[in-house]
Amino acid sequence: MSEFADVKLTDAPRFRDIDLRNPVFWKVRVRGAWVGEVEINGQIESLRINGVDVGPLVEAELDRRDPRRAKMRPTHVAGFHEAWAILQALWAETIQRARALPPEALHERVEDEWSFIETLRHLTMATDIWISRAVLGDPRPWHPLGLPFEEMEDHPEVPRDRDARPTLDEILAVRAERVATFQRVLDGLTEEQLASHTEPVEGPGYPPANRYPVAECLRTVLNEEWEHRLFAERDLALLEQSN
User: Model's pTM, two decimal places?
Assistant: First the structure.
């Protein structure tokens, strides 16, 4: 949990076989570097390499590889309906794939990433955060099986049971309720509401009491669903090899 700020690392550092998980690099300048066999996976904003901002290039290539990805950034109500339908179809395939594995494998962490069950628990929390709390105004929508993101501070009123081991069917039942909540919001959504802001919600948990664009709240859930399914598919492929 070290933090380096306003530090000059010149000549001395050599990084070999380093595993950096969940780091944050902000306003970092690297000059005269030699970079080889480096893999970066994460949200990239304004990454310049030899004077070229490669962030947009990466985004464009990812959209080219799977055009459905671009649909996760809708700007109108119809686009949100389309994106949600795509996600539900994709997740149905992923769940079917997971069911073919032994139940214990779904609690197994691959390279210390969240297990498949933990991923579904986190998506439960994501809906609670951005839909039930931020959009619908429920100050305490938390389900006991919800799993917050790691950087979120613990609070006695917000569940974070890292040792919970629900079955696939148990967490899918909870997830079905959250999917239904999101769908109800979409079914009643108008263009005017989409362009509006939420009202501040007091109480423990995330996000902090503030006004948020409704469209951004909805897109955050779409992004969470899209990215975590990709992570799940990646890990399921490795679990299939070992089970």
Answer: 0.87
